[in-house]
Design goal:
Layout (H helix, E strand, L loop, with lengths): L1 E11 L4 E12 L4 E5 L6 H8 L7 E6 L2 E2 L5 H11 E5 L10 H13 L5 H11 L15 H13 L5 E5 L7 H16 L3 E5 L3 H5 L3 E6 L2 E4 L1
Parallel strand pairs: 3-8, 3-9, 6-7, 7-8
Antiparallel strand pairs: 1-2, 1-4, 4-5, 9-10
Helix pairs in contact: 3-4, 3-5, 4-5, 5-6
Bound molecules: adenosine-5'-diphosphate and magnesium ion.
Amino acid sequence: MIEVVDVVKEYVTSKTTFRALNGASLKIGDGEFVAITGKSGSGKSTLLNILGTLDTMTSGKVYVDGVDISALSGKEVAEYRNKKVGFVFQSFYLEPGYSVYDNVELPLVLAGGRAKNNRPLVEAALSEVGLLSKIKEKAVNLSGGEQQRVAIARAIINNPSYILADEPCGNLDTHNSENIMRILDGLHKNGKTIVMVTHDMEDAQKAGRIIAMSDGKIIDG
Ligand SMILES: Nc1ncnc2c1ncn2[C@@H]1O[C@H](COP(=O)(O)OP(=O)(O)O)[C@@H](O)[C@H]1O
Ligand SMILES: [Mg+2]
């Protein structure tokens, strides 16, 4: 379970201080599929990045499975990012010159090294997104929709409890978006907790719960 308690995030420059999160509080239960919606600039990505420890908060607390994530040691943060959460971003962030296999294997390599028994795990993750047939292909040769499916396979390779997805369909056409939403729905049905940022209300409707943000706060949901 994720508990966000009164989180404030300020971006400070020499001239101004901007509050991207202004006392956001929220609970997400295990196995939920939530969509975070809100206008551009409302703080959605900032919140998701804080949940993923990709960014730090100015004040407030985030507990994940009862653990205060701002109190994790460097080693624990690395483990949290690698194993507890899986990230999916709008712009896939694959290694373009690497094969699909190498892209999906990467978190396993970071966690424990290159090992023979990585292969069945990579194959299982690619099967889950319907891309086993592209395992030898270079990432750069795939379509956008396929690249996002590889990114999802990479996100689930260490069997994380939480999938954090920031506008996962933002760069995709309707057909590919539907495909990605179906995959996320399948992961949800298999027990993953999914937190998806989207400004597309049709995609948001597919989640079990819609959380609305405005000016750095949760206003609904
Ligand atoms: N690194 C940064 N430095 C300064 N301001 C930032 C930074 N990141 C985000 N912001 C500002 O914080 C606000 C919220 O950003 P963001 O969380 O990306 O919104 P959303 O994802 O809802 O569009 C925006 O006004 C944005 O300009
Ligand atoms: Mg954003």
